[in-house]
Amino acid sequence: MPSSPGQDSQDQQDQSQNNHTHNKVYSGSVFMLITRLSIKSIGIVSSIFLARLLTPEDFGLVAITVAIYAFIELFGALALGTALIQQKTNNIDDYNSAWTFNVLFGMVAALCLVLIAPLVASFYQDDRLQDVLYIMAFVSGLSGLHNIGVVNFQRDLNFRKELQLQLVPKVISFVITLGLAFVLRNYWALVLGVLSNKLVVVIYSYIMHPYRPRICFKSFNKLFKFSRWLLLNNVVYFINDKVSQLMVGKMLSPSALGFLSLSQEIGQLPTSHIALPINKATFPVYARFQDNQIELKKAYLNTTALTASLTIPFSIGIAMVSPLLVAVLLGDQWLSMVPLLQLLALANMFFSVTSNNSYVYLASGKPHISFFINFSRLAVFFALFIPLLDYNGLIGIGQARLGSTLLMVFIVQAIVIRFLKLPIADLLRAFIRPVLAGLTMALAVWAVQSSVSVAIPLLQLLLETLTGVLSYSLVTLLIWHLQGYPKGFEHNIFSRLRLKNFPPKSGSSLP
Questions:
Q1: Which residues contact 92 (CB under 8 A, 6 or more apart)?
Q2: Which of 52, 64, 140, 504 has its C-alpha lying 20 to 30 A from 440's C-alpha?
Q3: Closest by Cα among 358, 352, 326 to 339
Q4: Are 369 and 419 in contact, with CB atoms under 8 Å apart?
Q5: Separation of alpha carbons 368 and 438, rounded Å
Q6: Is-contact 438 312, C-beta < 8 A?
Q7: Helix, strand, coil distribution of the chain in percent, nearest 5
Q8: Lowest mean pLDDT among 42-46, 149-153, 171-175, 363-367
Q9: Which among 221, 298, 385 has a CA at the least distance from the CA of 19?
């Protein structure tokens, strides 16, 4: 039966709205990337200065307390803000209940940290840990006061506000931490920097959003039904990441943990500062399409292609230039962490390109799938981690992380293919350009390293970096040209630059 004119008009309106929402994936991702890259740029500058002012032992000492702080915090990490985004409609009781729980748990967590502080100091035989944990207890109490209203910036796709919310406190706390490092020249600069950052974040959340929360318990059961799986996921993430740090701090030394901590911070840059902001930008888009699998599939493929195009060259680049990167930016005292950094960078490359999968399950109201995947990832990692740590020491952690990620990447992708009823060819098409360009980039950088030697290390680092950027960009554009300019990351960039000489050929767009 032919559709009525009214139905056709409604269909066109719905499709136009869907296209607008898909465009938000790119614009939102751009803003979130600007946010994270701006924050990370500040963080990198801070780490460079702090690494030269402080010692690996200082970093390791703080890493122990942060890991214990994270352990206490994860029991209240129900991600109620994520639940508010996933739900199609919310009321005032939902927001107030989420804020109330955060406040109460912050107080309980602070008390727990105060009580266990002497035990932790005794276990690690370092009295300095006790006083640091007392400060972390105050940080925990502050975190619960964060204004829950700011979650609407992400829910409403208002990424400009999200950018401002995250960037301004980071700049303020950066100045404070760096000033403390110059004055104190010890681990207290890092500790007080964490405290100042949390204080500024809480205050600024109330400046940015007019919502004023009240004590309420009415909606907790409704929110908990979704968030309990996120709690289990957070437990898995903690064990996967922080427990390994605590084991290194005990079995090896605080200095070894300092090397691991900084290696993870640099090696995880593609995940934490490219993949994560893209994921945060696309999650509310997925939530809008949770009942429309065709549009959900399209959004997922576009996001996967975008993530792969940015994280693959970044990860390979870190692995290739890490010897010079560490020597130039951090100093010779950190050179022994280079092999570990290379392994972690490659491991995080494989993790980054699959990290968006969990957000599909969350947006579809099936967070249990994400939990079971992450639990499997945890089991595989520790099956490798414990024997490799004993046999190879610190380098064994990198080997375990890379090995477990490689084993899981195929399983993770098989699950999302089944969940979305996704043709394998469509998924491969999202990866073909960044993979081929990334391999070419690695060969180009290796060729420069083998044949060109500049006396000044900084200039050599810049040369290798420039070689990687140019080779990756040129090969990506060449393959895109050979494919007929399909829609995707490259097409979106040229469209926004108003370069009309690159129209997609019929039938060549990414689904």
A1: none
A2: 504
A3: 326
A4: yes
A5: 34
A6: yes
A7: 85, 0, 15
A8: 42-46
A9: 298
The C-alpha angle 109, 110, 111, rounded to 5 degrees, equals: 90
Write out the two tokens for 239.
């064990």
Q: Which of 316, 328, 266 is nearest to 471 (CA)?
A: 316
pLDDT, one tens digit per residue, over 47-82 is 666 666 667 777 777 777 877 877 776 665 555 666
Which residue matches tokens 């950027």? Answer: 469
**Structure tokens belonging to residue 75:** 């029991």
Are the C-beta atoms of residues 222 and 206 closer than 8 Å to each other? no
How far, in Å, CA of 275 to CA of 347, rounded? 14
Secondary element (H or E) of residue 445: helix 424-451
Q: Name residue, tokens 């993430």.
A: 237
Q: Summarize the confidence of residues 455-473 as an average pLDDT.
A: 92
Rounded CA separation 29/48 (Å): 27
Residues in the chain: 511
* SS3 state at 54: coil
User: Residue 238 carries which side chain, given as an amino acid letter?
Assistant: F
Q: How far does CA 371 lie from the centroid of its chain? A: 17
The Cα 427–Cα 308 span in angstroms is 11
Given a cut of 60, is residue 506 above it in pLDDT?
A: no
Lookup result for tokens 């020491």: 393
- pLDDT by residue (tens digit) across 178-201? 888 788 877 788 888 888 888 988
Summary count for the chain: helices (H), strands (E): 21, 0
